[in-house]
């Protein structure tokens, strides 16, 4: 017989039928966050250059 702790470990979710619907968006969000973090300075400079009046 399984103890309560073993049941918890066995039902930790690795065989959950809807696990894909949890993991895929989580992974995509993580990758998007990495991309935003990588290009945030470049994006910030581009936005500020678009909003600042030119000196012409």
UniProtKB/TrEMBL annotation:
The chain crosses the membrane at residues 20-39. It comes from the Archaea. This is Uncharacterized protein. Keywords: Membrane, Transmembrane, Transmembrane helix.
């Amino acid at each position: 017989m399984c103890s309560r702790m073993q049941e918890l470990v066995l039902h930790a979710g690795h065989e959950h039928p809807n696990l894909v619907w949890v993991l895929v968006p989580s992974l995509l969000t993580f990758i998007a966050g990495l991309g935003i973090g990588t290009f945030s300075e470049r994006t910030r400079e581009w936005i500020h250059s678009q909003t600042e009046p030119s000196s012409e």
